[in-house]
Input
Amino acid sequence: MKPFLAIAGALAALLASPASAQNITAPDATVPEGVIVEHPMVHGASLEGNLEGNSADREVMVVLPPSYATSPERHYPVVYYMHGFAISGRDFYDYMQVPTAVAQNAAAGREFIVVVPDALTKMGGSMYSSSVTTGDFRKFIAHDLVAFIDSHYRTIPTREGRGLAGHSMGGYGTWVIGMTHPDPFNAIWAQSACCVSPRNETVESAAAMSEVPIEGVDQSGFGMRAGLASMVAWSPNPQKPPFHADFPLGEDGKVDPMVIAKWAGNSPLAMVAGHTGALKSFAAIGADVGDKDGLVTNDTLIHQELENFGIAHEWAIYDGDHVNKIGQRFSEVVLPFMAEHLDMGE
Amino acid sequence: MLKGLTAGMSAIAVLAAMPAAAQDSARIEWKTFQSPAIEGNLEGNSAERGAYVVTPPGYDENPGKSYPVVYFLHGYWATPQMYQEMAKFEEAVQGAAEAGNELIMVMPDGYSKLKGGFYSSSPTVGDYESFVARDLVQWVDANYRTIPGSESRGLAGHSMGGYGTIRIAMKNPGTFSSIYMMSACCLDPMVLDAETAARIEAMSEADIANAEFGELAPVSTLVTWSPDPTDEGFLKADTGLREDGTLDPLVNYRLAANSPLVLLPQYLPALNGLEAFAMDIGDQDFLLEGNRLFREELDRFGVKYDFELYEGDHGNRIAERIRTEVLPFFANHLDAE
Output
């Protein structure tokens, strides 16, 4: 619970009115001259039939670089950028000023298409996991979305032309999609990844989760809601409405070790040892976190685990918190890193 | 040769590409090839991997014919040679062919320094999972007249091989279309306690070499699922034992992350995409409980599979059931020409 509670503190400042609007919103992003933004609805066959009723049609922000309109033959690398918990893809795109990042990099000769998919679910976030309850968001990103973008835009439609990045829950998504679906992407970068260590519960914290009625999830607070979102993503159970998930508190009043094991099976830290081949297949890996982010200890653990397995990666702890430098670092660190490791076309 | 000459020029061309004797019956061969997935492992398991390949009767005489392939994964504490001695795969393939089901059968070498790589991916042991799902399949398709598509590729295995079957099916969708798990081990998560971790820490190389089955098995799974290249000891594994005698829970989280029961919800699309899925186990098998729990989970998620509980123990009817159940199952579900 602790990492999420720490995020909750960092995010509180962002919330205009937490009680009514449980998801973070942001004013429209500035779109610099020449940058084109489209927002197609992308159908995810991998999301069909999910038990939460999350739409299989997702809004996707597609930010095209300035030369896209003027160089009709040119093909571009694509960076897929995944948002965090309790925010939509569009609001994340707005908040992080993605069009400005694209324009700044283009001005320096690094032209990308940046794609921000929406993974906001009923519980506040898909965790970019594969769950019958929330939908198979891993395959949605790695397969459905990539196929759509390659067939609708002038991309460099190869592994060498694609990068994957994300913030917080999206940083977590970067790790787990990277490990389980490495083939589409050449380079990955996780910003302030959440949920790196296996999530555990005490009897008290588990009991508190069981107390939340499904209609009360939105008002249950950031940490609780994130816990419930993790639960429906990682221990789904179609036989247990209305959450369609196994709660960590067992019928015997103890924490159910099988539920904790299932959550652990979705933990990047526990997954590294079994996915070194996938991780080593990337041209480059990067991760960073702010020194005032509650997640700094956790993110340092996965950095150390990668070191132990000899998996080369860039790693930085910088002056910042969970949110205040993310957009800036996406522009100044993540995209330049991608330019070094992706096929940039011409 | 004389007969060939009298039959005409075209027959000579055929004979020239054939071994001296015609293939009247199924033939088993031991072959080796280089597996990049095994290269660089810290135990020194050879990347020059072996596999038995059984071709059906008539394989040589019908150079225009291609066949479905059944891959079979052997169990722990055993070499492929021990399984061949037990199951006589060429006889099984011969019997299938006589029943009208011509297929190629392949059994790769899943043995390791600690007597089994669990068809998993470990820097310490090697990436046995990709050795099977990628390197072996590519090598077989390149060197035998297979029908090189998932609809004509089946995967089966016994015990550790049953574990490998479900693991590989979940993590490598689109490679095999039908799977058959026999008496699968290791389905529910293993849990290491501090006492066992301390016992493992105290083992010398000689202790490992002389260990009994029950002593070695938790060590073999530990090096596979909790590998640690920075371990100063020879095991290159993280037991998680701390100086104060307690256990780092991360070790058990790593073990959990390799349990099919734990992984199942994440990999349902792969299982639901199978053409056919079967599992069986003997009613006196010591692995009944893990199989029961796994079936409960499959049922919970509505996965379709065939199951049989038969009279037998962990090993006494495997050779028989490969003939009476496994090969007929694949004959039903794999596409032939």
